[in-house]
Structure formats: structure tokens, C-alpha cells
Amino acid sequence: MIKFKYVILYVEDVEKSMNFYQDTFDTPIKFITPEKDYGELLTGETSLSFASVSLASSNIKEGFLSSKSEAKPFGIELGFTTDDVEKLVAKAIENGAVLYEDITVKPWGQKVAYIKDTDNYLVEICTEIQ
């Protein structure tokens, strides 16, 4: 059996990044190493995980593009659904995120906004598709 088990974001400060997601999206911390270079959040069957740039560099010998706050976000996004997009966007901004695309309503009725998290990763905050 094959399962999609986790997504790992490479970040400078694992604990800080995990705290942003815990405080903003109410995702409890499942695990963090004593060295605080890797951790996982409880987000359902698929975990949202974080690895320090230095740990990732030791695993990915060919290197990778790191997320830079001055650059546009990568062409990938994390998505969180909520009944109250306005409230969750405001909470994310309070916790250090930056509004990237303001709230819009799609032709199919879904409310969608985009933020950049504290590590410049793109996060979609939206209602469920009806």
C-alpha cells in the first residue's frame, strides 16, 4: 500500500515555524527533535513537517532553492479550509504572515485568500468547495 504521508518545509527556525502554524491553524505539535531541527504537526492523516535548512542540506547533497522572504513564493501552496476566511486571514497576519492575495469569491462560490507564511511559503485559506 502507498500513502501520501507528509510534506516537509525547509526553514531556518523549525520551532518558530511550527509555532506559527500551531498558533494560526490550531495544528498541535506531534513531535520535535531535541535539536529542534525537525518536527511534525498533527494535521490529519498527512503530516505537515519542518526540517532545518542545515538538516535538509545534509540530506539533499545536490542542494535546493531555499525560500527567501524577499522573493516571490514557490509555485506550490498549502491549503487550509475554514468557515470564516476573514477571521483566519486576520489571525495569520497577527501571527506574522503577509497578505499576498486578498479574499475573493470564485465563480463557483468558494471564498479564497492567499498569505505568505513567516518563511515565505504560500498558503491558501479558503472555504470548502460546495
TrEMBL record:
CDD domains: VOC_like. Residues 3-128 form the VOC domain. It holds the Pfam family Glyoxalase_2. PROSITE patterns: VOC. This is Uncharacterized conserved protein PhnB, glyoxalase superfamily. InterPro entries: Glyas_Bleomycin-R_OHBP_Dase, Glyoxalase-like_dom, VOC_core. It comes from Chryseobacterium vrystaatense.
